[in-house]
Write a sequence for this structure.
């Protein structure tokens, strides 16, 4: 990866394309989980990589490319969120209830409703908590990487991830019954 | 390890962020505490649900858009600002001029324009101040300095010193009957 970053810094578009192939899907899924909209996610993924290419010369440590890229994606999402609220499918507005004969979460999953419920639970979180939970629990980044991505201390990140998990648990419990 | 610390560390435990020593302590506590074990089980179930989140494939067309944008942004300024054909021809000529010379020439042009505009504005304001002071009718005043017999007598208030001096004044009156000021009075209204 470091070789590719170094080449891309010198303007090698093919090297940058390989970096895109390596991280594009992760960035897209990260942004999609934050926004809840595929169109927004595609648009923001595009903006993230364009900005990354243009600003690559300012990246001091090539080894931190991944964290840096995610921090750009996060900033793009936050900027867009400030301009207008995302049209996410939030359970607060339109509760998605598990059907009575499928009270059990496993059964609901079999019917394809669990992922919708999880996304709704994520959407119910404030953007700050949602960001760190997605990075940790969905995309399996280390706390150190997440701290770099969001520009906060590891202790703060750890606390937020735990708070977010508790909120998601309570949310799912509330919407699936005991 | 007490229950409070155990429950605080459950997320870190699930994410594999605890040291080996902490993992041992936490597992010992969980084995002995049904309450913390229940908390752990509920969070573990949430983790399993989060892990089942579908991973979407990225539309292949996105790279084409990224590539198009970075190619465009790397292009020279003149190529970027327009896609008109004549711009390409212009660019060939402009590219022959060294960039510092081009920037310097543009700056000089801008400066000349600014000075000229300021001077015109200043001159007009000065003249209109005089006119407003000495006339009740708005006039367009033209003074031909070569017709002055005593040029040195032009002082702060030119009309005081111009009294009795023979000069040609063309005064254009802008009145309702003559809005364009076509009637030129060839006389000296200040002579006594």
């Amino acid at each position: 990866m470091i070789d590719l970053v170094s080449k891309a810094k010198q303007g090698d578009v093919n090297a940058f394309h390989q970096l895109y192939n390596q991280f594009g899907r992760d960035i897209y899924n990260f942004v999609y989980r934050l926004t809840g909209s595929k169109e927004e996610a595609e648009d923001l993924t595009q903006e993230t990589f364009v900005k990354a290419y243009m600003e690559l010369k300012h990246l001091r440590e090539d080894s931190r490319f991944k964290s840096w890229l995610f921090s750009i994606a996060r900033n793009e999402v936050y900027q867009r969120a400030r301009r207008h609220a995302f049209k996410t499918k939030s359970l607060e507005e339109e509760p998605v209830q598990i059907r009575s004969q499928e009270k059990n979460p496993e059964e609901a999953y079999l019917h394809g409703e669990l992922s919708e419920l999880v996304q709704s639970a994520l959407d119910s979180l404030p953007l700050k908590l949602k960001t760190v939970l997605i990075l940790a629990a969905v995309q399996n980044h280390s706390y150190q990487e997440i701290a770099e991505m969001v520009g906060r201390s590891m202790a703060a990140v750890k606390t937020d991830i735990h708070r977010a998990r508790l909120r998601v648990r309570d949310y799912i419990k509330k919407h699936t019954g005991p | 390890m007490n229950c409070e610390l155990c429950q605080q560390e459950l997320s870190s435990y699930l994410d594999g962020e605890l040291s080996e020593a902490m993992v041992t302590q936490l597992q010992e506590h969980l084995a002995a505490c049904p309450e913390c074990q229940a908390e752990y089980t509920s969070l573990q179930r949430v983790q399993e649900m989060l892990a089942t989140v579908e991973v979407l494939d990225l539309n292949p067309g996105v790279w084409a858009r990224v590539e198009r944008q970075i190619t465009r942004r790397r292009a020279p300024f003149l190529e970027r600002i327009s896609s008109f054909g004549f711009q390409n021809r212009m660019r060939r000529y402009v590219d022959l001029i060294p960039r510092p010379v081009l920037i310097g020439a543009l700056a000089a042009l801008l400066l000349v324009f600014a000075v000229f505009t300021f001077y015109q504005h200043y001159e007009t304001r000065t003249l209109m101040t005089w006119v407003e002071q000495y006339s009740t009718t708005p006039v367009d005043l033209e003074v031909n300095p070569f017709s002055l017999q005593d040029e040195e007598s032009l002082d702060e208030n030119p009309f005081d010193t111009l009294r009795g001096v023979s000069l040609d004044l063309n005064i254009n009156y802008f009145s309702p009957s003559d809005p364009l000021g076509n009637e030129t009075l060839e006389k000296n209204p200040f002579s006594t």
User: Anything to note?
Assistant: Chain A has two domains: 1-85, 100-178.
